[in-house]
Fold:
Amino acid sequence: MYHIVMRTKNREHFIDEQVEWALETFMRKKAHDLDAWLEEFGGWHDHVHILIRARPSICLSDVYGQLKGFATWSVRKRWPDRVFAWADGVYAVTVDPENCEPLRAYIRNQRTHHNEGTIESNWEIKDSP
Structure:
């Protein structure tokens, strides 16, 4: 299992609740096509968190590259008048499936954590200096 965090280019505030729902739908479809399982998804204005289960034979960079690419294409097709792009790179770590319930809850409740200021810095993407 992998915890992946992707942010929008220049930290643009593009991801409202409607876009978040669409991104989750697009990424679930692409994960299925890759024979992977998107187990949790949550977003905030400028980033999304994903908990995904993938076979070890699938290269992690292929997984997040395909998810980012398909989501970008799908968003641009659905909202052609809006500019959308992901920042280069991602935050990605392996996760122990038996001990990830706190992370699952954190991902599911992204909007609440950011609204209330209860974000967990260990699970958030870091900006480059």
About this structure: DSSP finds four helices and four strands in the chain. Strands lie at 2-7, 37-44, 47-53, 91-94.
